[in-house]
Fold each of these.
Amino acid sequence: MPGIPSFVRKNKTGVTFTCLLLLCLLMILFSNRNVILQPKKVGQSFFSVFQLSVHAVGNWFTDTVTSIRELKRLRSELEDARDRLMEYERVSRNLTELRRENEQLREQLGFAQSLPFRYIAAQVIARDPSNQFSTITVNRGSIHGMREGMPVIAFQGGLRGLVGRVVLVSLASSIVQPITDPSSYVAARLQSSRFDGLVAGSPSGADTLTMSYVKKLAVNEVQYGELVISSGMGQLFPEGIHIGRVREMTAKGYEASLELEVEPIVDFSRLEYVYIIDTEQK
Amino acid sequence: MSRDLKAFLLSTGLIALAVVLQSTMLHWVAIRGVIPDLGLIILVFVAIRRGSMTAQLSGFAAGVIEDLLSLSPLGFHALVRTVVGFLYGLTVGSIFVDPILMPVLLTIVATAFKALISSLLVSFLAIPAEGFGVFTGPLWIEMGYNAVLAPFIFALLGLLKVLKPQNKEWT
């Protein structure tokens, strides 16, 4: 059959395109069935090294720029101090800054110590490279004791807020699926009125949550701004972790349950440090 | 090493670097949580300069890397970038690219096209993703962001000799 090789030679670009397209589709299909999970793990491990490196380089540049700025500031202050004794003011300012930092660290430490579970503290090093998916990459992996399914929390605004759960663990980094992801579900409870429901991410991609399956008789008891906490049912997330506050309430006539719009406790855009809870070891 | 291979390796490396930057540093300059797609702008440039073959292979390779760093199913971004690279590559040699207007227009269309393919994939393959709602806020922000950055990135990439217009044999 001389026809096929000559056809391939003539239509090299089109044939390559078709092959790549089929390969992509096969990968998506198998990926959805978790068959290519291991290669994905290996790949994630490999490429997260680049993420870690870029993060480190970024930090180095930031530190360098900050150091240069700091040097300039110190120099000018020293010159001023010769005339007006500004040195004392600088020391005083530094002291105030240290006190503030100390207070913040004590607060974080206090929160962390209040956890009834063993935890792993981690830093957010990367986020999803595209706008369609919303993942967070942290700098702790299997060598630090991370496992898939572990709940992730953060301390913000004086509250312990639920961030999400670990979905992919590589050697030195892990991917966290935030609760705002449309495929994330958390068994939840209204803190004051004690009605149960299911909190899911918003399909529109907005940083809001939807609490559904709340009994309709809760309509008179639920307050705007009421805290929503994890109920512990489903055993994926521990009980009592803050999820968000009720912002909107929808009661459709033909439905037996209420739908609540919940604003997450955690501001995902300024998330820096998280705690991964090991629910198996208290 | 042939010039075509060099062009493929360089463009793949550049798109992969852009993807890593998107996942780490670009979140600092996100507008309402939306980051620009530098990888797409580079892919468009490579496609109109080097043709379908280089662009689709680079798009595929860089897309796989993006999939590994994302929660997307393996092959999702690879497919989107392969298709965009292939289609844009068909226009090689037939578009006069001025410094501003064409980069902006080409990038806007590419972003819309990416959104369309993503949305179709999310719908047909039931991929659990936020999707890329056509004509929603984030899409417009990304489109605008990409359009603003495109002339600068095109100008920078134009300095690279390896990415000068293709030789016909490769395609």
Note: Residues 64 and 75 of chain B are 6 Å apart (CA to CA).
Amino acid sequence: MQRAPLRARFSASMRGGCSAVAFWKRSRHRATDLRIGKAVERPLPARVIVDGQPLSAFEGESVAAALLAAGVLYLRSSSRLGQPRGVFCAMGVCQECVVEVDGRTVPACLTPIRDGMEIYLRR
Amino acid sequence: MVETDLVVLGAGPAGVGAALAASRHGLRVALIDDAPVAGGQIYKAPPSSFTVDNPRALGAEHQRGARLRDELAASDVETYFGRTVWLVSRGFVLEAVGPGGLESFRSKSLILATGTFERVIPFPGWTLPGVIGLGAATLLLKSQQMLPGRRTVVAGAGPLLLAVAAGVLKGGGELVAVVDLNGAADALRVAPRLMGRPDLALQGMGWMARIRGAGVPVLSRHAVTEVRGEDRVREVRVTPVDGEWKPLPDRKTRVFETDVLAVGHGLVPATEVSRLLGVDHEYRADDGGWVATHDELFRTSLPGLYVAGDVAGIAGAKAAALRGELAGLAAAYDLGKVSRDDWPRATSTLRRRLHRAERFGSAMSRLMKLRPGLVGTITGDTVVCRCEDVSRGEIDDALDNGAGELNQLKAWTRCGMGPCQGRMCGEAVASLLAARVGNRDQVGQWTGRAPLRPVPMEILTGEFRYEEISLPPPAPR
């Protein structure tokens, strides 16, 4: 939790966060894993394969979230210019996060992880 | 084929409100959504495989969502989740792809509760992996219970800005900066309307206090003007803007190193079904943009077709639920299930509550209203249409050559022809057009086309042998 002494917090916010204290506070990483475990439990671990490589994930979370947590952001290349693309809207509208699962092209943000799933990125 | 009195499309607060009200008055109702459970985006549930140890830690919205799902389960509404509707015709017939393959629905009436999607006006680097919408960040935080990244910059306009920023802090992530297009004057202007919901106003103030207390830089009247990185976000550049959101390049640009940028410039009603059905629409800038024209009972220009919730104009979840209820009652009335005499009693308090809820919602919507200067962040080589890789330079060429309407520009540039069917680029393209020809309502909307969502061809065609297709003999002999 970010709880510096009140005086330091006050002065940091007054200076718009440019003070050394604010810099120190900001550079302390809190979460090592992106998954937040305070309110929910993920009881079912899952092992999936992404482009032939094993990846640990959890049953039911979206493929997009699992890849994000593993630091895989670059999911595919754009149609004409071949630029790197990844999750954008996370609700199945933008079609940027499409990956290949079971021979079908599906949006990663709407596809739940299942143990043993084989995922291919369309880079 | 499912035959029913009423189909409600979309199971967010509006759709569920409509389905419950119509069902209570004796209509047979089918509620369709592509998600696995009800809740829409705002009450999106965590995956069913997660166990919720501490429901209160998930927040008031989770409780509301859970209550909504319970009410639905206890009702006579027939639910069809996991169904992606790809075609809707007058009559009404809906074609969907479900877990078991193709499904068809036929109903006398149809309520569209399809909600909104997010608007992001492009800037250099906006397509890099690691740039996500504010809605996307909200979904990751609340539904997937995941931080968007180790370090996050949150930018844009509207109520989602503070909610995401606070969510990152609450989740234990590093909030690098909050970059707000709006300034203090904008917040003050809408303050009176916020008093209709003191609980939400206080919540917003609490978020701001937490953000400032953590020493996070909050930049008002600033926009993201560039994101840099090779194959993912590395740094975000932020520049002051004027009152119309136009970047002021001679003012100091600040640079923040980060993993993720969560950015959003308002919400837009999702009108693809009403466009496909060809009903009347009007452009209402204060409500989020194009909306199907409707009366005070949410009837559109096509008898039997209603709109409910944010798709009828941005007003928030509370108003959405009440609008849904009113639309459901209207559908029941129009099918003869509510008598003229019963009508006032059934609707009087509802309308009053709706008016109050809409007052708050309109304040939020005002903060998200797009200002014309923001297209100043779209440089010539910035990709505008993400699906087809069409840059601003190519759009400007088409405009120079006389393109004056949205579909004409689509035909000339391919903007809007890709898998997202213009949802992501539409607002930017229309704003660029409007800057040339005059007004947003003069440039038109994308013509509605099926399929409403990408559908695998093999699901539509099924299995067949070419010999089975009966072909007439060629003519003439």
Note: Chain A has a mean pLDDT of 83.
Amino acid sequence: MTYGYTGKFTEVNLTSSCITDVSLDEMVLRQYLGGRGLATKILWDRLGGQWSHIDPLGAENLFLVLAGPLTGYMLGSRICVSGKSPASNGITGSTASGEFPVEFRCAGFDGLIITGRAESPVYLLVTDGQVEIRDATKLWGLDGKQTTQAITKEVRGLMQTRRPDFGLWKEPGIIYIGPAGENLVRNAAVMQKWTHACGYGGYGAVMGSKHLKAVVAKGTGPLPAVAHPKALPPLLQKTYDEIFVDPQRGFWGTGAAGYSTGAEASSEPVRNWQEEWHDEKSIGVINLETRNWVKRYWSDFGCPRACMKLATVRSGPLKGAITDNPDYELEAYCGTNLGIFDPDGVVYVSSVVDDLGLSGINSANTMGFAAELYQRNILTTEDFDGIAPTWGDAAAMGELAKLIAERRAIGDVLAEGTFRAAKTISELKGVDVTPYAVQFKGIEVGAHGIRTGHHFPYLGYALSVQGGDHTSIPRPPLSEASAALTDSLVVCNISLGFGRTDHIWPFLKVVTGWEMTQEAWMTVDGRRIIQIQRAALLLGGPDVFWDPLVDDDNPPRWYHPLPSGPYKGSAPQRDEVLEMRKTAYAEMGWDARGIPTTEELESLGLHDVDRALAPLRT
Amino acid sequence: MSAIPIPTLKPWVVRDYIKCSGCRLCEIACSLHHEGKIWPEASRIRVFMLVPGVEVPHLCAQCSTYPCVAACPVDALSVSEETGAVIVDNAACTACGLCIAACPGEIPHLHPDQPHIVICDLCGGDPECAKICEQAGYLALFKGSRTQRGAKNYDLYAKNPEEITANLVVNLYGEKGEEFIE
């Protein structure tokens, strides 16, 4: 047996309703671990030979649900979803926390490989050792809160009927899509617990394309056996102790940055990145905590950090909104980026995007882009079906989110994501609007700017194999392989400090028995994953292809000097960035055109990847 | 000044539901202690989350009348003189489930793998769930004591998670919360 794994990976073909177990040998697990790494391996093995012909929203794409060996063991519990991304046409490992991953593992599963397309809406129910395809016709069209409520009731009832002697059944774990995923919005998320999103990559749309509303898990077993069981409790306690002595991060969560990243770091999106500085004290954490938070600490299974909070709007026109925090990213994207600086407004817009199953970062980037086109009179209220998306108007921004999720009026174009919408609107309106699109290779950027030179690196997102994903950028001295590590073990990358990996190795040893080193991961195993992701991204297609020399670059806006704040006038020099890019290409084992070299790929044993890239080199 | 001794003071896990973060470190600590592995469904304390954000740690309240013990047809349940906890004799238990039916909060449940019931035994007087929750600083659970006077109060905590959820959801989310009550 392989410690730390249930060893069970199951393929579900939604076209034929065929369900079969797939075996993966230990060597593959050792090299790719799980989650993002294993997704890369599975996707490449099955689709690599015809990558650019695979439609991410076609039945031929795969939807992967993958845990990792440390899921449930180390600081919380996350699940990774993947497939060919409808946003980047590459591969993204997209993770979110909740109890689903633990239920999934306790039901005896490490992964699902979902293929084909169901004729009518379905959900998958995963219970001890088995997977069932169940009708979801009545769930189609429901928002996140309604979906969670309906599935919780149905599945608890089912378990209670199947095994009434057990006593009371707890709720199942659920990953699901909202209306945005059903309507194939390219930045729709796979959601969990109302508010937690596998956001980057647009996998909500992949689920929607397969008519898959949800994957539901209820397991009654233990987590998979560990190699050194006696060493586990002290290791857990050691990690808890490290976190418990630093209570302030959990106390505020990441939301405290909603003010300081604008006022101090000056690297926060303000009105679609027209500025990155604000000194709006209203968005400060103290106002959210005193006005909106109804639960100061909100965690997922096994997480001692509790950086999430529960927030509501209790009075006024936006009353009834419920979301988490909002954390930094959504304070920025559903707040400052839309010119919204009051806590009620931020909570409201976050709640609306959650309910619709939109990725709060990605879709609110698109909303900010649309609002700027409204500001510039390129789009009018007529385009918006009567809505006036004026900066700061939370109610109007909520309506805009619905317009996108339901693909009404210009929402149908915006549902394609910022990059594709910019191209279409430029054609429709005869005005080049691409300079207002702040995104990287089809993936809207996270809420961290680069222009001050002190926040995110000049050449981070531009080289990322996951586009604008702020959790996966190559920044010195870390390489992107460190993000691939946490995403492959499927553990949180922030609870002990962003990008930190030293605490991982002892856990991996106790759980799997494997002695792995940071150096081996960074130079071989992690690097292998990044190279496959890079290859898939460059092969791209079928609707969009990336040219590294054009697209391994920052959006035009980020070369404009900051117009305000303590770093006024600051911006990277493009020629310097392009010089840096040459060096980075060499370090990554990519040639002068940004394509992984034969030598690099051969050294990692990726002969087929090398062959697949040959046409790009001619 | 020395405290007035109360001879019958027994440990009790004080529960403050609204402070529960849902971290489930209690389930981890409990199952590691009793089973030697992380096993949420074998944990003697189970956190119900029937509505996201509304977490209800569900565990034995040691009712003054012990209806579960009275209902057991095979004398598999007894009360610890030292702690007041219900002790399960796994070998004697037939997993008939009558104790679940007798419990006002439907708190006991079957062990997922073995034919016996699981009920909180207060870890012999030093409950692991309360210990970790206190360390974490949430104090959703902490070790207190069960006094003789006002003993009936403790009985009220033997409550079904649906009922607790129906109260908490309104406390947290106001009127909007009513939409999520089944």
Note: The mean pLDDT of chain B is 94.
